[in-house]
Amino acid sequence: MAENFRYQQLTQQLQQLLAQGHWQPAERLPSVRALCKQYQLSLATVQHALHQLEALGLVEARARSGYYVRQPLSAVATTKPESAPASPAPVTVPELFVDIMNRSAAFDIQPKGPVVNLPHLTLLHRLLSRTLRQHGSRYALHYDEPTGLPALREQLSLHYRHYGLALKEDQFCITAGCQHALFLALQAVCQPGDIVAVEHPAFYGVLQLLQQLQLQVLEIPTQQDGLDTAALQQALSRWQVKACVVTPAYATPTGACMSPAKQQHLLALAAQYDLAVIEDDIYGDLGFYQRPSPLKSLDTEQRVILCSSFSKALSRDLRIGWIAAGRWHDKVARLKLVSQLAGSQSVQQALALFLAQGHYKRHLQHYRNQLQHQRDQLLNALQLYWPEARYTVPQGGLALWLELPGKPNCTEAYTHCLQQGIVLTPGELFSSSGQFQHFLRLSFTNPMVGSRLTALQTLARLLRNKH
Amino acid sequence: MAENFRYQQLTQQLQQLLAQGHWQPAERLPSVRALCKQYQLSLATVQHALHQLEALGLVEARARSGYYVRQPLSAVATTKPESAPASPAPVTVPELFVDIMNRSAAFDIQPKGPVVNLPHLTLLHRLLSRTLRQHGSRYALHYDEPTGLPALREQLSLHYRHYGLALKEDQFCITAGCQHALFLALQAVCQPGDIVAVEHPAFYGVLQLLQQLQLQVLEIPTQQDGLDTAALQQALSRWQVKACVVTPAYATPTGACMSPAKQQHLLALAAQYDLAVIEDDIYGDLGFYQRPSPLKSLDTEQRVILCSSFSKALSRDLRIGWIAAGRWHDKVARLKLVSQLAGSQSVQQALALFLAQGHYKRHLQHYRNQLQHQRDQLLNALQLYWPEARYTVPQGGLALWLELPGKPNCTEAYTHCLQQGIVLTPGELFSSSGQFQHFLRLSFTNPMVGSRLTALQTLARLLRNKH
Fold this sequence. Notes:
- Two copies of one chain form a homodimer.
- Helices cover 44% and strands 14% of the residues of chain A.
- With 467 residues, chain A is α/β, with parallel strands linked by helices.
- Chain A has three domains: 2-69, Orthogonal Bundle (Arc Repressor Mutant, subunit A), CATH 1.10.10; 93-117 and 368-464, Aspartate Aminotransferase, domain 1 (Alpha-Beta Complex); 119-360, 3-Layer(aba) Sandwich (Aspartate Aminotransferase, domain 2), CATH 3.40.640.
- Chains A and B meet through helix 5, helix 6, helix 8, helix 9 and helix 12 of A and helix 5, helix 6, helix 8, helix 9 and helix 12 of B.
- Chains A, B: GO terms for molecular function: transaminase activity.
- Chains A, B: This is PLP-dependent aminotransferase family protein.
């Protein structure tokens, strides 16, 4: 048991160092002997940990030479500056999107596969049932305030304070989820025809919104450390951009995080070019090793609009998100009121209790470990069934980004896979440019075991035969 | 007991005949003797019933002459054709609106007053708790279909079938309430600058939406039997109108219902002028004597967009509404997906069970009686405390429309009343024209007893002193 614990601990430590870039890709790790000495561990323990890292695809053993940092798929490799669209354009999104949403909006390759056990839900649902018993009659007859239940906004304020972001409860507005928050943000800031800069690859929900609101998209290359702010700067000098949408923490699909230097640069550019910065923080609470401070914590000009929700960290069934819209707060609150009227007070109250009683914090500790474990299951499966693929190794969030050799067209494979009961999320959804056709996003929201593991194996085989 | 039952039954019968226009305003009712003979009841029973109708303000006794139908406030008296704005204009809504919403979006004069007992809620909440226990884990990880849970859409289809509207489950899209449905409808049909015809007076939520979506409003006079379609015809021949928003059943604020003839005329005009007709059916289930067929049941061209929700009939806390958008169905579903992503599956599932098990139907039977009782409480209170005011006597819905003699400015009185803990709903909210300043909407959602009754008395006194 002790040995078991020690090798797991070492695996964790080395994994964290790798994540932090302590060693460069292709760099040789310290020798087994050196690691034994450094960590005061036995040869067997160190070797066990290194085998584990190898199984995760994080390092590779070279005969008679040692362990080398495996070159993960970085956004650099996939999105060279020249590959991003050079000028703003109206958005077109494949019709496929609606079909996928109809089947499984969680983008799970096997929507009927085993479901992760979420013990915190029992507790949350108990709080909800109690709230309904206690306040149901009054809530049934009165709508909440336009900005949402004060008790919940207070808890959000306290939550963010732990991570370096000081906002008062009246700076938040509760929404019906993060997508709704993004919608309100874009609607408040932009007029039809305006140009909005996004990451490349970007979250498909944002691209859909731009299309709906008749906005033009400008896709800015994104690397492992986030949006290429130098490329953004070039674009800003050339085009009149109204807003920039970024996901600084564990962006979907790549899982990339934005470096502090780039965050500072982005805000300086925003000030210079009078830009609204829309921050999608939905994965912020799902970092395995840390909870990054939101970009908004650096915002001295009230021009960062923070958008998030409980959908990813807690439950997609709650339909509760929030927006801290800075200088656009009043406009956003009015928009929400007019387009939606109200939110569920009982759900907000139950969530406020769940946070106030410390359950959310405890849940996150547990859930982050679970997600990391599921990511490792996925990495193991990929090493085993899809060794020729390249993929990012996210340090948080819910998905990784996979590049397929031989460049099969994943969009075309979608229907064929569906006949096998497999829902794939084609890379093409993440750009308006038609690029990323040989990319996939793979989710580790659910355990990669049982029928889901079989589905992955089948998927690898199907796509291998495609080229 | 038997006597008690008989006079109540007669009161009901006479009330229904009055509502159906069996006698004209100012017409003399049959004599007490004639009524005794007709209904085979004792003198005491008939007199008891007539006193009851008098207390409700529905008839008035004239000495030595008998009982006369009291002239209720009809929309005719308040909205003469010439009083409605003559040409389309951008909407301006008083800022006051947001302030009211912040205090009590249910527009209750005494938001902290006694709350009506809603026994059905216990049952609904139990179904919800059970659903969460059974399906919570899966719902937490997957979003629902873009158009909402099939089981609920199926129940809606069955529900409307009882009232002459045959729609399949796939013709509905679940929304986050009726306001959200109206938002989706207008967004799907109109472009900024388009002209939308509305009732005069209109639901403030629609006016807010038009302002938000930068649409122009054209207010069409409305009488006791609904929108003046002759006036609409004149307007259509002059202006290019894109859509018309109507509430054919128990419209807020007047409680008016649209006559079948006017409904047919409206649809003929819609066909001739290629109009979208947006039907707000939110009060349809709350008719005291009948459940009117929705306007959409006459729609042969898929140009009526039915919008409704469970907020008024069941609970404002559910945030579940629906839209049946006819030819705009796909567009609306896409819009919902992009702006909101999903709805709560557990709440939808609990509602589907609530309807399927017959609880909704039973609840409505009970709730309609309760609302009628509360309306009568309000009418009694008005007779007592505000005899000089004129008001509509709605046969369903949740509110009546009150005209004040001496024309005090209710909008100006708002703040003063608030200091007394009274929230009034000024008539000015129901038009973009600045008219209806000496009107109020009064809700009978809650019992007019205790502190709410005192508030009404105070309100009458305050406004009496205003002129």
